[in-house]
Design brief:
52% helix; 6-stranded parallel sheet; Rossmann fold; Arc Repressor Mutant, subunit A; alpha/beta
Length: 217
């Protein structure tokens, strides 16, 4: 199934380069050079995923992300940037971005992130997670309970579901979870659905955030 992308990047050469990376499974169906244009293009095209740069000529990609989420609170935005600024990381996630990705990432990993975000996962560059835990700015609060306490409060989760939940937090898709645990993709999907129901959340992104907030991972 093809994933439709809104690519937001002010440098034409980078846009052309990114477009050339994608195959038939991921298609750039709309482009924007400014933040305001990105918001309007989202309103008109409703893409599956927005690939958003931060440094734009008018409003920032972070502000554009916030405005897009105001239009559609289910919008899926991947921040793709060359900067690892603590403030930009925090502001991006508070604005509603599903992923924060550095531009030195491999092509295959970027494709994987886009697909998993489309499925409802969140993904953070490994360099980002320590920043969030150290700053404790509210996106991922400091651990408030031990694993034992968490498991006691969520005793209805099976051991296998805990294993699946950790992989969901790591940003793996159902197919990748299946490969990691040597189970079928159908079984992996069933575990994810059970986790969502048991944690009383709406999707896998919220399940991942809740697991981080509650101190499971």
């Amino acid at each position: 199934m093809t994933t439709n992308i809104l690519l937001v990047e002010d440098q034409k050469l980078i846009r052309v380069g990114l477009i050339s990376l994608f195959d038939k499974d991921i298609e750039v169906t709309a482009q924007a050079e400014t933040g305001k244009e990105a918001v309007e293009k989202y309103r008109l095209t409703k893409p599956d995923v927005v690939l958003m740069d931060i440094g734009l000529p008018d409003i920032s990609g972070i502000e554009a992300t916030k405005r897009i989420l105001e239009i559609d609170n289910k919008a899926k935005v991947v921040i793709l940037t060359s900067h690892l600024s603590e403030q930009e990381v925090m502001d991006s996630l508070h604005a509603g971005a599903c992923a924060y990705v550095l531009k030195d990432i491999s092509t295959d990993t970027l494709k994987m992130i886009i697909k998993t975000v489309e499925e409802g996962a969140m993904w953070l560059d490994p360099q980002v997670v320590p920043i969030l835990r150290e700053k404790n700015c509210g996106v991922i609060p400091a651990r408030q309970m031990s694993r034992a306490m968490f498991k006691e409060q969520h005793a209805n989760l099976t051991q296998r579901e805990y294993e699946v939940l950790k992989l969901v937090v790591d940003g793996l898709s159902n197919n990748e979870i299946a490969q990691e645990l040597t189970i079928s993709e159908h079984t992996a999907k069933a575990h994810v659905c059970n986790i969502i129901q048991k944690l009383v959340v709406d999707d896998r992104t919220q399940a991942a955030v809740k697991a981080l907030k509650e101190g499971l991972v």
